[in-house]
């Protein structure tokens, strides 16, 4: 309702509201009555206009039929709402999961994923403080007389050129929230040693207790005994299904494009679902609305550039980053003029745009596009003796590739100072292919053959999330959404073309599967007497595929109790379900693994997890922190290929190739961190056991899960020599992972009625799945960063060594036959393949402007 800039007394304006709205407004004479007031010229509801009229005299109201009845509020009832955003002072970027609190009482709230917060305060003078990992705290003192908008603009503590301080200023290396989420500062990730200079946030996540990467050098994530498909990896709310470049040696996430990383593995808020083991919530930079900034990185393997800045100053901004390897360019020069060349490249591109329509409405658009391709080309000229001048080159090729494309469009709307909404539409597409091309030329006639294997998954989604702040220390989240999954479990396309006949196009194994996933959730988080914090929630999911519909109710509960100012206890229970599976036929997570849905014959996976733990500050300065967690997890309806089958077996239906089972995982995780002084860092230790049982495998006996690792220890240290020089050290240890090896080999001759004898050979037999263990894994990496500030730019030289002492860690164990001294005799020896058996130096140059 727009009443223009109407002026008059309180009674006059109320009569005007009644005439314009059709409502009858009754009010007490004890309310503040004034002779001269002016209404807002912007469109507002009746209640918003009434709030302006009685701004100096808070009221309560009830609605009966077509009547609004106003009465004065008792002093104890009067509260006002302070709401706003927590932002980076230098860029205008919003800061998610920032703490906003009263320093004297400790009461407060946490900003959401878009930096928004809301607090209810009584009239009078108040002091609020905002804090965020890697930033200096900001404190504001103010007097509140009405609902107030207040923004906190924090200055990055890692960006200060010169600060005079007395004593040591704590510097968060890794931070665990009261509800158990682990926050990793991206600036710290950029400073750690990196293979070939490729900064990789997934490698830093693997350093956390309870998380490992499987084989050395790979970017897989195995969390508390779960597989890589059991991790919900979100890039700005969009699920990502493959996170590896270079067959998994590097992750697809460019650290220059990432603002915030949160890891959930012990407790899961109800707003997350669809996976069993963890949630990795990654948020990209939104775009600087103040000034143009950029970063250029030059490494041994790849180079990249990032740029962000305003489109309309203080209203809209963009952030883009591009990274590409130049392995193909180097290999092309080395193999120039060769008939056979082998090559590989990858690239990734991130872009985000944000636009503030008005203080209550904001739009975001973000996208990621990345691809890997490996190919071998055979170049030759077929002979044409009759007409040499008509000879032409034939380019045969073997190739393989995979890639992701994701995008999201979201709308933030502040419905009221206490109610925040976020509407998001998402798209995710993952594709993998293997191909071969062959050409023949006979008497100027061509015969071409092409075979291409394609697999992937595509998602279309929409969801709405609401944040409601009914009072201080009380936050209610609720929402729902839907996702349509399109599965392609594998298509083998064969195309043959003869110059003298019609082309032949054959498709094998073409299966198009779809699934609809619908969810709704309610999550309530509140604090009782400043000591006990509770997050209770319920998530409901319905999945429709073939003729059968599955549903699941997933209760979630997390508790945090402050026993003393320096001791906090935590407990959590999470019920989870998963309606899609990643089925692998190898011991390494590869892009060839297939995503498959639940069907009438394949039930969804489910899990139940209990987590008990706590945090202890070991010194008064709170720079030493000890975090301990104990957990137990049950896993049901796991999938595994049956023995002697795989996804290239076309003789049976894909569902017949699989068998289901169950598993359990339990363990203890310890994390000791130091966040003050020149030497900072943390030490993590995990003691765990994970077993699987499949009635149709291993004679029905339980066996160790693929990456069951009994002991794991990780050390990460950083030393600040001067303002310009720092060093980082990372050391990892893990006991041997399980492996299946043959325990016997026997002669297998041809059947007597066969004429040929060259088919005779040997067969091997493995008596137990994962019955052996690889040797222990350990490795040390070290790196140095040398920075220099100039007037408008800064540069960083990063140098270091990966695998400092040249440990030959096992990637693969295999048997090999060797000839003995005696004629006709041989012996079989177990051998080891190592991917990085020697120290690997790296150098990287970074320019910021």
TrEMBL record:
The keyword Membrane applies. The keyword Transferase does not apply. It comes from the Bacteria. Keywords: Cell outer membrane, Membrane, Receptor, Signal, TonB box, Transmembrane, Transmembrane beta strand, Transport. Gene3D superfamilies: Carboxypeptidase-like, regulatory domain, TonB-dependent receptor, beta-barrel domain, TonB-dependent receptor, plug domain. Its main location: membrane. It is a multi-pass membrane protein. Residues 348-803 form the TonB-dependent receptor-like beta-barrel domain. GO terms for molecular function: siderophore uptake transmembrane transporter activity. GO terms for cellular component: cell outer membrane. It is found in: Cell outer membrane. Residues 184-275 form the TonB-dependent receptor plug domain. It holds the Pfam family Plug. InterPro entries: Beta-barrel_TonB, Beta-barrel_TonB_sf, CarboxyPept-like_regulatory, Plug_dom, Plug_dom_sf, TonB-dep_rcpt-like. GO terms for biological process: siderophore transmembrane transport. Belongs to the TonB-dependent receptor family. This is TonB-dependent receptor.
């Amino acid at each position: 309702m727009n009443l223009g800039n109407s002026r008059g007394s309180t009674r006059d304006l109320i009569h005007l509201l009644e005439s314009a709205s059709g409502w009858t407004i009754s009010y007490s004479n004890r309310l503040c009555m004034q002779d001269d007031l002016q209404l807002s010229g912007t469109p507002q509801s009746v209640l918003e206009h009434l709030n302006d009229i009685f701004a100096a005299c808070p009221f309560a109201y009830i609605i009966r039929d077509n009547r609004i009845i106003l009465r004065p509020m008792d002093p104890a009832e009067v509260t006002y709402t302070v709401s706003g955003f927590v932002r980076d002072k230098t860029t205008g970027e919003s800061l998610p999961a920032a703490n906003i609190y009263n320093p004297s009482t400790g009461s407060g709230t946490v900003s959401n994923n878009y930096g928004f917060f809301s607090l209810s305060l009584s009239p009078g003078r108040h002091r609020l403080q905002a804090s965020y990992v890697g930033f200096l705290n900001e404190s504001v003192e103010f007097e509140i007389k009405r609902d107030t908008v207040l923004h906190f603009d924090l200055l990055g503590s890692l960006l200060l050129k010169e600060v005079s301080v007395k004593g040591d200023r704590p510097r968060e290396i890794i931070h665990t929230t009261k509800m158990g989420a682990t926050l990793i500062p991206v600036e710290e990730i950029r400073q750690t040693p990196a293979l070939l200079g490729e900064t990789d946030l997934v490698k830093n996540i693997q350093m956390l207790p309870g998380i490992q990467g499987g084989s050395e050098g790979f970017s897989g994530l195995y969390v508390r005994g779960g597989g890589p498909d059991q991790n919900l990896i979100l890039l700005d709310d969009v699920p990502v299904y493959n996170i590896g470049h270079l067959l998994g040696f590097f992750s697809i996430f460019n650290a220059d494009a990432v603002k915030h990383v949160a890891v959930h593995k012990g407790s899961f808020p109800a707003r997350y679902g669809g996976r069993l083991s963890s949630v990795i919530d990654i948020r990209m930079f939104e775009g600087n609305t103040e000034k143009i900034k950029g970063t250029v990185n030059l490494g041994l393997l790849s180079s990249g550039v990032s740029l962000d800045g305003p489109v309309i100053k203080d209203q809209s901004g963009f952030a883009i980053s591009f990274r590409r390897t130049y392995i193909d360019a180097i290999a092309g020069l080395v193999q120039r003029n060769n008939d056979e060349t082998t090559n590989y490249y990858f690239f990734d591109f991130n872009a985000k745009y944000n636009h503030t329509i008005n203080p209550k409405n904001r739009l975001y658009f973000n996208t990621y596009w990345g691809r890997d391709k490996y190919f071998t080309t055979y170049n030759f000229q077929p002979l044409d003796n009759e007409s040499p001048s008509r000879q032409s080159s034939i380019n045969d090729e073997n190739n393989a590739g995979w890639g992701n494309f994701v995008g999201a469009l979201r709308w933030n709307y502040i419905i009221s100072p206490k109610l925040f909404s976020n509407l998001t539409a998402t798209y995710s597409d993952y594709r993998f292919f293997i191909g071969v091309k062959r050409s023949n030329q006979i008497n100027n006639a061509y015969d071409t053959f092409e075979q291409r294997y394609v697999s992937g998954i595509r998602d279309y989604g929409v969801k709405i999330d609401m944040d409601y702040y009914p009072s201080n220390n009380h936050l209610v989240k609720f929402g729902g959404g839907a996702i349509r999954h399109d599965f392609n479990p594998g298509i083998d396309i064969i195309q043959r073309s003869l110059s003298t006949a019609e082309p032949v196009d054959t498709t094998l194994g073409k299966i198009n599967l779809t699934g609809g996933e619908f969810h709704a959730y309610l999550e309530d988080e509140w604090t009782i007497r400043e000591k006990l914090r509770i997050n209770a929630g319920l998530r409901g999911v319905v999945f429709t595929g073939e003729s059968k519909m599955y549903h699941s109710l997933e209760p979630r509960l997390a508790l945090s109790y402050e026993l003393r100012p320096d001791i906090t206890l935590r407990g959590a229970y999470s019920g989870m379900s998963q309606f899609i599976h990643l089925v692998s036929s190898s011991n390494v997570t590869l892009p060839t693994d297939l995503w498959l849905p639940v069907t009438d014959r394949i039930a969804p996976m489910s899990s139940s997890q209990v987590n008990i733990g706590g945090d202890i500050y070991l010194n008064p300065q709170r720079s030493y922190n000890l975090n301990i967690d104990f957990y137990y997890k049950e896993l049901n309806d796991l999938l595994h290929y049956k023995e002697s089958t795989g996804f290239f077996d076309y003789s049976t239906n894909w569902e017949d190739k699989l068998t289901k089972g169950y598993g359990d995982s339990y363990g203890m995780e310890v994390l000791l961190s130091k966040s003050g002084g020149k030497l900072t860092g943390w030490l993590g230790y995990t003691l765990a056991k994970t077993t699987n049982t499949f009635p149709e495998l291993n004679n029905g006996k339980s066996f160790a899960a693929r990456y069951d690792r009994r002991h794991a220890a990780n050390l990460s240290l950083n030393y600040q020599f001067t303002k310009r020089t720092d060093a980082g050290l990372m050391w990892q240890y893990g006991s041997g992972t399980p492996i299946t090896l043959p325990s016997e080999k026997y002669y297998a001759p041809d059947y007597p009625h066969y004429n040929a004898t060259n088919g005779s050979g040997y067969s091997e037999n493995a008596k137990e799945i994962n019955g052996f263990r690889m040797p222990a894994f350990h490795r040390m990496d070290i790196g140095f960063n040398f920075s220099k500030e100039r007037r408008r730019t800064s540069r960083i030289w990063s140098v270091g060594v990966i695998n400092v002492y040249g440990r030959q860690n096992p990637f693969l164990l295999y048997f090999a036959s060797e000839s003995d001294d005696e004629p006709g005799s041989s012996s079989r020896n177990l051998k080891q393949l190592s991917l990085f058996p020697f120290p690997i130096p790296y150098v990287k140059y970074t320019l910021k402007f």
